[in-house]
Protein: Mitochondrial ornithine carrier protein
Amino acid sequence: MIFLFRSGSLRSKCWLVFKATRQHARNLGLFALVYKGAMLLLRHTAPDGKERHYDSFLAGLLGGYTVFGRTIHNSVSQQIVIYVFARVALALAKLAVQPKHVGDVKGGGGGWGLLDEKSGLRKELLKNGWVGFASLSWAMVMYVWRWHPEAVQPSLRSSMNYIYGQSDEWDSLRTFIWHNK
Structure:
């Protein structure tokens, strides 16, 4: 994206890519260090010395706060968190319709079984859930970008302005099409 939407020399763009890659690796490596350290500490505090059901949540909370929570103005951190959030949202949607007995993890796993397996609503959600999710996501981002561009993350806003931007060329094309019907 840097090469497409940033101005500057090839050298400056390569430097930006290097810096972003380094920041990305640093963030993920530091998160892994904090997470694994917290998991070891939590396991050590358990009466039986085994991992408890909520340990991963607490270790993730600590790692998320330590590495990503305090760097909101860092675009690399924002992109990682947004990516993770989107994946979690999809996983939670799957868990909502997955039957309770389906899962791979002993002592956990399985869906929440919020909808009966034979339910027509469940079948429709499985069939059309992605369509709705993708459609609403794009509808919302286009609406927010068009009417509240200041709220859109700066790199996304820049890309969208470049691709979909309101310009004299678009106005001219629209006028031409409208008058030549």
Notes: The mean pLDDT is 84. The two ends are 38 Å apart (CA to CA). Residues 118-181 form one domain.
